[in-house]
Amino acid sequence: MATLGDPKKTIEILNKYHFVFQKKFGQNFLIDTHVLDKIIRAAEITKDDLVLEIGPGIGTLTQYLCENARKVVAVEIDRMLIPILKEDTLAEYDNVEIINDDILKVDIGKIVEEKNNGRPIKVVANLPYYITTPIVMSLLEKDLPIESITVMVQKEVAERMQASPGTKDYGALSLAVQYRADTYIAANVPPNCFMPRPAVGSCVIRLRKKDEPPVSVSSPELMFKLIRAAFNQRRKTLLNALANSSEVPYGKEEILKAITETGIKETIRGEVLGLKEFGELTDKLLG
After folding, report:
1. DSSP 8-state code for residue 81
2. pLDDT score of 178
């Protein structure tokens, strides 16, 4: 039975193993049963599911996942946590496998093939804030059989993922996520739900992978080069931001011609454009 949602039990485990929080791993352990329940509900975990958990910590969320999923594969980078997980907090569960590795180096495709016969998996994680974006983008950009990604992230990052054109939170991350997934914020989580307390609020956000992108574009790779260039210098006009970027393989005249043919004003900034406009501009540049 899951016990680690209780702060006293968490403290007891940490003291028992003389565990020291590693700042370099961005460790903040959940200590709120209501939030844990919300994560399970948002992820829609069933007994048919293989769940990949990133950063199980001492196993708080892992216990809940084990009780709701068919199998859990938990990837933990901190080797000091492995004995706690294997010998103590997850010892009673026979449907969990613990891997001591960096999730960015793990062959997720191989895990899906070997543990789930190639069928799509669900990813669940309480992510370290310092590496949230690289992990989420790695999961979305690779052609992996993932049905959904339900993660605890910094509130500001969740808002950026959902942001609309022209708003302060809108940026390259918004477009990258929305091109590949539908987003849903399942819960706002205050700092007092963690040990130790982070300095900022958090959100549980679910990203459900789209079957097809919302726009058809000849080269998604070029489109995202344009997007990154536009937001790297977001106070400049789209024309100048693209022309000044080493990532964009076109001269200013070619870019201006494509912008004009797309029907975009020459003086417009990239921060007000959506995927549709960036897709059209990409196709015009490709001719």
Report:
1. G
2. 98
Q: DSSP 3-state assignment of 232?
A: helix
Please tell me the pTM assigned to this model.
Answer: 0.93
Report whether 104 contacts 138 (CB < 8 A). yes
Helices 132-141 and 172-180 cross at an angle (nearest 10°) of 40
Question: Domains in the chain, please, with CATH?
Answer: 7-209 (3.40.50.150), 220-286 (1.10.8.100)
Q: Quick check: 87 and 111 in contact, CB under 8 A? A: no
Structure tokens at 278: 């960036």
Bridge partners, 51 (sequence order) = 72, 122
Residue 19's SS3 state is: coil
Task: Give yes or no for a contact between 126 and 189, defined as CB atoms under 8 angstroms apart.
Answer: no
Burial class (CB in 10 A: 0-12, 13-18, 19+), 256: middle
Sign of torsion over alpha carbons 195, 105, 43, 205: positive
pLDDT of residue 1: 81
Which ranges of the chain have pLDDT less than 50? none
Q: Which amino acid is at 101?
A: D
Contact 254, 285 (CB under 8 A): yes
Contact 280, 174 (CB under 8 A): no
H or E stretch covering 184:
strand 181-189
Residue 218 DSSP one-character state: S
